């Protein structure tokens, strides 16, 4: 297997997905920090898997000193140690009514100018600050609490609750701080989503105080729902990635819930069919997804009913099954019959 080719191909497909999501429905989602976030997430995941920073630096084709400098630059402001540049700039703007770009650059002169400008751009795109003017005459002001409240309410109408619900379902039980780390959502927005989810009992609270964890045993986005597509996309993507990671690690269920070989319980399969108007098997192929949904919904209902009647043990296996279907028009290169 050519690992470099595989990595390049996965990156390409992921960027296609990100571009589609970032422009869905005419929306232009801010991407100013995506590359930096991918770098930091990769570094953290490599460390979690036991890879030293010296080896990680080599994997990125960087010297150790340059590698560490980049981590420090992205992880915290050089002007205000212990805080991210994003947080420091936002707090600075909140402490003043109107601030010129030059004043911001002077305040954070120890940070790279391009990075400060990127943070300002991202804050504007996120709606946390407003800009007026152009060039050297640009001035900024932080959004008021009323403006932020209106923005949060609008975001909740776009499926934020459902996306946080999906994150809790897949990663929970999980603390608020852990959700902030993996969720990529502002603290105030997350708190409002958590309040909504716990109020209608979609999510339960475990423990108290700083160690309070959020958990849920169910997550469903109904077909035809006008909100929540973000959560559905995340859940589909997470299922595919998780399955591939299990196969790469050679994972198999620890509990022998069935007498099956590991390759029969963990993995995936992909089939493609070439169809055209009048094809005798077209209907059989095109109804596969609908039949799968019906069968799996019935099976899940039976499993959940049984689990509720007997109770779930302290240790169990979560089996995730995924099915997707799409249609793409292609050209065979042959003359039509």
Shape annotation: globular
Corresponding CATH superfamily of one domain: Winged helix-like DNA-binding domain superfamily/Winged helix DNA-binding domain
Measured distance between first and last alpha carbons? 40 Å
Mean pLDDT: 79
- Strands in their spatial order, largest beta sheet: 1-3-2
Helix content, binned percent: 40-55%
Percent of sequence in beta strands: 5-15%
Count all strands and give the number.
6
Given this structure, which CATH class of one domain is correct? Mainly Alpha
User: N-to-C SSE series?
Assistant: HHHHHEHHEEHHEHHEEHHHH
- The CATH architecture designation of one domain is Orthogonal Bundle
Helix count from the secondary structure assignment: 15
Major beta-sheet overview = 3 strands, antiparallel
- Low-pLDDT stretches: none
Kindly identify the CATH topology of one domain. Arc Repressor Mutant, subunit A
Computed over alpha carbons, the radius of gyration is: 24 Å
Which secondary-structure class do the elements indicate? mainly alpha
Quick structural overview:
With 337 residues, the protein is mostly helical.
Write a structural description:
The protein is mainly alpha-helical. It is 54% helix and 5% strand. The strands form 2 sheets. Strands 1-3-2 form a 3-stranded antiparallel β-sheet. Helix 9 (160-171) crosses helix 11.
């Amino acid at each position: 297997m050519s690992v470099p080719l595989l990595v390049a191909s996965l990156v390409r497909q992921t960027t296609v997905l990100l571009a589609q999501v970032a422009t869905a429905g005419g929306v232009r989602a801010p991407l100013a920090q995506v590359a930096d976030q991918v770098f930091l997430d990769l570094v953290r995941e490599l460390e979690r898997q036991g890879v030293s920073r010296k080896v990680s630096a080599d994997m990125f084709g960087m010297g150790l000193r340059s590698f560490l400098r980049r981590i420090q630059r992205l992880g915290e402001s050089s002007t205000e140690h212990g805080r991210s540049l994003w947080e420091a700039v936002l707090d600075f703007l909140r402490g003043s009514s109107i601030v010129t770009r030059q004043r911001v650059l002077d305040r954070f002169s120890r940070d790279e100018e391009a990075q400060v400008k990127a943070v300002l751009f991202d804050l504007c795109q996120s709606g946390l600050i407003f800009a007026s003017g152009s060039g050297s005459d640009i001035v900024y002001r932080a959004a008021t609490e009323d403006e932020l409240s209106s923005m949060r309410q609008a975001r909740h109408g776009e499926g934020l609750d459902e996306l946080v619900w999906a994150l809790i379902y897949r990663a929970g039980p999980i603390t608020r701080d852990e959700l902030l780390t993996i969720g990529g959502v502002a603290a105030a927005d997350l708190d409002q989503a958590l309040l909504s989810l716990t109020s209608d009992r979609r999510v339960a609270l475990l423990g108290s105080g700083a160690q309070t964890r959020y958990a849920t045993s169910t997550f469903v986005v109904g077909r035809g729902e006008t909100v929540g597509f973000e959560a559905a996309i995340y859940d589909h993507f997470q299922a595919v990635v998780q399955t591939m990671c299990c196969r790469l690690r050679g994972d198999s269920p620890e509990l022998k819930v069935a007498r099956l070989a590991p390759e029969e319980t963990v993995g995936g399969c992909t089939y493609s069919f070439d169809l055209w108007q009048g094809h005798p098997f077209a209907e059989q192929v095109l109804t596969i997804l609908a039949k799968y949904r019906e069968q799996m919904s019935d099976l899940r209902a039976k499993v959940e009913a049984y689990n509720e009647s007997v109770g779930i043990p302290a240790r169990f296996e979560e089996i995730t099954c995924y099915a997707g279907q799409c249609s793409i028009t292609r050209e065979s290169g042959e003359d039509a019959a």
